[in-house]
Design brief:
Layout: H1 6-24, H2 35-43, H3 46-68, H4 71-94, H5 100-118
Helix pairs in contact: 1-3, 1-4, 4-5
Amino acid sequence: MIYLLILPAAFLIAYSQIVVKLRSSYGETALETEVLARLMTFLSDPWVMSAYASTLIASFAWLFIITKLPLTIAFPVYIGVTFLMVLVGGWLFLAESITVTKVLAALLILAGIALGVRA
């Protein structure tokens, strides 16, 4: 199914968001350090750089995806799948809670994706 093309791009974006969140919590807080020094710390972090690289690769993948799918379907599916991946990744790697509200939101997103790809 052609919609599976969206999964690698969504995974790369979810990866980048989770890594940036993980790495931003290490070391000093932004208030304890000058902004330029903090920026240099992030730019010298290989994990943060891998997150930025994955975002760049995802943008190239997106260029390919939108040549194969209608934008009005591809974009909502991409955002929904990315949201679901970040939700699960936040739970697995950041120890964020999954509440009833989040589960209901995820189910609504899955229902919307199912309806959207049938349109």
